[in-house]
Every structure is written in structure tokens, then in C-alpha cells.
Write a structure and sequence with these properties.
By secondary structure, the chain is mainly alpha-helical. The protein has one domain. Helix 8 packs antiparallel against helix 9. The longest helix has 47 residues. It is elongated.
Amino acid sequence: MVHSGELSRKSTGNRLSDMILGGQDGLVNVLGVILGVAAASNDPKIVIAGGLAATFAESISMAAVALTSMMAERDHYYSELEREHRELKTLPKKEEQEIRDVYRKKGFDGQLLEDIVKHIISSDSLWVDQMMKEELELKEIKQKEIYTSSFVVGFSALVGSFVPLTPFFFAPIHTAIWISLGISVVVLLAVGFYKAKMTIGSPVKSALQLATIGMTAALAGYFIGRIFG
């Protein structure tokens, strides 16, 4: 039985993953784009125009990718669910043995194992549910979860994209470049640190990893801009 607290932790974990995915991707990509444009043109209007174009294209793209990938996972789940129902009717002995093998690997044996198998195969719905979870390791994705996740990813990408872009609205272009880099590094360090604190791993290592990814993208964009500038 899954308790409400466990469901809440799973939901929080999923949302955190979506926010980090969208925010990091938006920040890193737009940072690389605007620094490349800034290095090539030295024109703040072009930098802002390019940055805004990248911001909204990135946000829409990330939301769409999250939506289509989760829909594909859902469709895969239902295709496997249909196959399991079909095999239950056509190959019951094989499916029973698969359940037995699953629980034997968990450490059950003897009469206890047989009692577990007997209980599971007494209900088709329970039988199929166990096959989906234990053998195929698949879970059903609800429609609401698909749309919520895609919105969170897209919105986080939008917010993340404005982190490196905002200084170009208020500061001279050369000053804005350094402010943008500084803010982006601080945000990536903070996100990496927080991610490790909320999950597992070294907060310092996680922070440095995200910051390194961001700076690599920034340098790539900047040097390409310098070449064409």
C-alpha cells in the first residue's frame, strides 16, 4: 500500500527533477547564445533580440519534448499492459512461472513462495499489476502528470533563460557580459548544491558540475561569436 506521504515525496521529487532539467537547460543554452551574439555584434538590441528568441524557443521546445516523451512512455505502458492481459489468457503457465521467478529472486522460497504466487494469480488485475511493476518495472503515467510535468519543465526553462539575459536590459554590453556570467555561475552553483542536498551525492561536487557545464557552454558560444565577429 502506498501512503499519502510516500506519494507526496514522489511528486516532490518529480517536480524537483523537472525544475532542474528545465531551469538548467534554459540558463545554459541562452547563456551560450547571448554571449556568442554579444561577442559577434557588440549591439545590445541584437543580443536582447537573439536572447529573447532563444528564450521562448527553448521554453516551448523543452515543454514539447517533456510532453511527447512522457506520452510515449504512457503509450508504451498501455501497449505492454495489453500484451500482459493477452498472455495471461494464452500463456497462463508461462506467466505464473514468471511471477514465481520474480519473487524467488526477492528471496522467497518453499511454501511461502507458492502461497504468494497463488495469492497473486487468484486475481487477474493483481497478476497483471505485479507483472507490470515487478517484471517490466513500468508504472502508469496519468494524463494530469504529463501536462503538469511539461508545464513545469517549460516554465522552469523560461525562468532559467532570463537569468543570463536580464543584465543586458540594464547594463552596457561589456559590463552585462560579466554580470551575466557571474549571476549564472552563482545560480548554477546554488542549484547543484540544493539538488544534492535534496537527493544524494556531494553538494560541492554537484554544484561544481553544473557550474562547469554552464561555463563550457558560455565559452563555446563566446569564442564562436568572436570568430564571426
